[in-house]
Amino acid sequence: MAKKNFTISTVVTAPSPATTGTSLVVASGDGALFAVNEPAIVFPVNNQPLVANAEIVMVTNVATDTLTITRTQESTSARTIVVGDIIIQGITAKDWNDLITAVAGKITAFADPNADRIVFWDDSAGAFAALTASTGLTLSGTTLTVRSASTTQTGIVELATTAETETGIDTARAVTPDGLHDMATLAGAAWMLDEDNMASDSATKVASQQSIKAYVDARGLDGWIPVSNIYPFSFTLGSTSGVQSFIDWDDTMDLCSYLQKGMKITWTQNSVQKYAYIIRVEADAGLSYTETTLVGDLVLNTTTYPVTNIKFSMLESPFGFPTRFSYTPTIGGFSANPNMITTFSIIGRTCIVSAASTTNGTSNATTYTMTLPVAAATITNFTWRGYALVVNNNVALDGNWSITSGSATLNFFDAPLSGFTNSGNKSANAVIVYEI
Questions:
Q1: CA-to-CA separations, 263 to 22, 39, 228, 260, 369, in angstroms, rounded
Q2: Contact by Cβ (8 Å): 194, 185
Q3: What residues contact residue 209 under an 8 Å CB cut-off, 6+ apart?
Q4: Strands (E), 71-117
């Protein structure tokens, strides 16, 4: 049923015949007021609807302002419906009786529970019943109370503020995504560490931005690791030879476990930043100091010029490190040496020497030797060889070079392992690669 409010009109065209006809027309525009399948009462104008003058009909269809009706409903008598009669839709006895029947079928009596209860509809039983409060709920009079939640029980919970979320010690309030989003500090978080040296080495906790930055800065984004990160070491100069410096580290532990051949080192001395390769690391018998040999920039007298800002690097090209170093080799086999440009670089344990003659020298021997910046590695029965462009007695030829195991001297040859003339001009140009 779909009833409508304020449904009242007048008959402008009566049924035909008046006592049995099944359609009538109401005032223009009033047809929309009437609901289909709802009863209507027809009675004379200027009268109250009574048993003697009124008829209940059922509206079965509405077409504009024409109503199709079923006559003599709810035991009423047929009326002679005339133009001007009143027709209304409202509550009739049948409506009330139908409602009582429907409700009566749903409400069943139940025993007094002798306690405060909420009445609810039990659909599985098809009846009303008393609701018993479950665990966590308390019903007293008209008050329903929900218990507080905890780590061991369900219940109502208060949401934490951003400040409470940041503090991280409240055990009763719940954290929200918004509270986590708005956090300005993790100082109260047990899973966050703020250690500049990452000493805990935790696999389960996160580091603060500041500690990560401090850790990275200490190791140098420029590729250098300050020696102070390992131990507050310093060194003193023992002696120098060519481009090599022999130094002693005043450590009380074995620095050999940190330093390796091929590592790069930088230090400040006399307000100048210096660079070198480490080519030897050796501990003395008592482990009271570590001996190292550097090749590159020479170390100045450490008493006169104290050493500061010592850093190490294992990278190929740490910031500021020279692409190559120049050195002046000792040349043999000449009465007048050629002018040469010689440089070297070290990658890991490989030394690369570039030797270029700008002028020829005057030969006085069949040999042509040149000292190296770093001695070759000692490998039994091993020799390094390569191509060289040489001049012998004013003739340019394809020659070669050779370095034997453990040697600090290179030999040039006129042809494969052939000697030069002991007079006339001679020189050599080569890129020399060997292991140190």
A1: 112, 105, 17, 6, 28
A2: no
A3: none
A4: 86-88
Please state whether the peptide bond connecting residue 17 to the residue before it is cis, i.e. omega within 30 degrees of 0: yes
Predicted pLDDT at 113: 77
Give the other-Cβ count within 10 Å of 241's Cβ.
10
Query: What is the C-alpha to C-alpha distance for residues 278 and 151, in angstroms, rounded to an integer?
Result: 61
CA distance from start to end of the chain? 104
Phi, psi dihedral angles at 203 (to 5 degrees): -95, 0
Q: How would residue 258 be classed by pLDDT, with cut points 50, 70 and 90? A: confident
416, amino acid identity: P
Beta strands 308-313 and 334-336 are unpaired
- Euclidean distance between CA atoms 57 and 40, whole angstroms: 5
Q: Are strands 206-207 and 192-193 parallel, antiparallel or unpaired?
A: parallel
Contacts of 383-386 with C-beta under 8 Å, sequence gap 24+, read 384/432, 384/433, 384/434, 384/435, 386/430, 386/431, 386/432, 386/433
Question: What span, in angstroms and rounded, lies between the C-alpha atoms of 370 and 355?
Answer: 10
Mean pLDDT estimate for the chain = 89
CB 279 within 8 A of CB 261: yes
Structure tokens at 429: 């140009």
Q: What is the 3-state secondary structure (H, E, C) of 322-378?
A: CCCEECCCCEECEEECCCEEEEEEEECCEEEEEEEECCCEEECCCCCEEECCCCCCC
Are the CB atoms for 250 and 289 separated by under 8 Å? yes
Report CA dihedral (201, 202, 205, 208) to the nearest 10 degrees.
-10
**What 8-state DSSP symbol labels residue 63?**
E
Of the candidates 241, 230, 219, 303, the residue with the CA atom closest to the CA atom of residue 269: 303
Read off the pTM.
0.52
173, 156 Cβ separation under 8 angstroms: no
Pairing between β-strand 383-392 and β-strand 350-357 as defined by DSSP bridges: unpaired
pLDDT digits (tens, 9 = 90+) for 190-208: 888 888 878 888 888 888 8
Exposure string over 95-127, b if 16+ CB within 10 A, otherwise e: eeeeeeeeeeeeeeeeeeeeeeeeeeeeeeeee
Query: In the structure encoding, which two tokens stand for residue 165, read together?
Result: 């979320």
Find the DSSP H helices in 194-296: 209-219
Are 226 and 248 within 8 A, CB to CB?
Answer: no
For residues 263 and 281, what is the distance between their CA atoms, to the nearest angstrom?
10
